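User: What would this chain look like folded?
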Amino acid sequence: MQRAIDETWKNITWKEKVTKRKRLIPIIPKSSEFKRNLRNYLLGDWNFCAHYADSAIKQAYSTKVLEKKLLEGKKGENEASR
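Assistant: Here's the prediction, encoded as structure tokens.
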């Protein structure tokens, strides 16, 4: 699951949204092509059944781990720019 989260994290794009202040909004890739490529990547050196890779992808998208990583990454960018 960690590899699925890491690969998804690497492919997030950030969209700038301007209201009263500038904000960066994460766009998480959800296309079937991305998920298919992620599945093939996970199965590359996987000795178990494909449904384990499918489960890892599903959990990576449904878990709060990705959201937490997004928030921590955003906080780290703000601190680094100071």
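The chain has four helices and two strands. If you want, I can go into more detail on any region.
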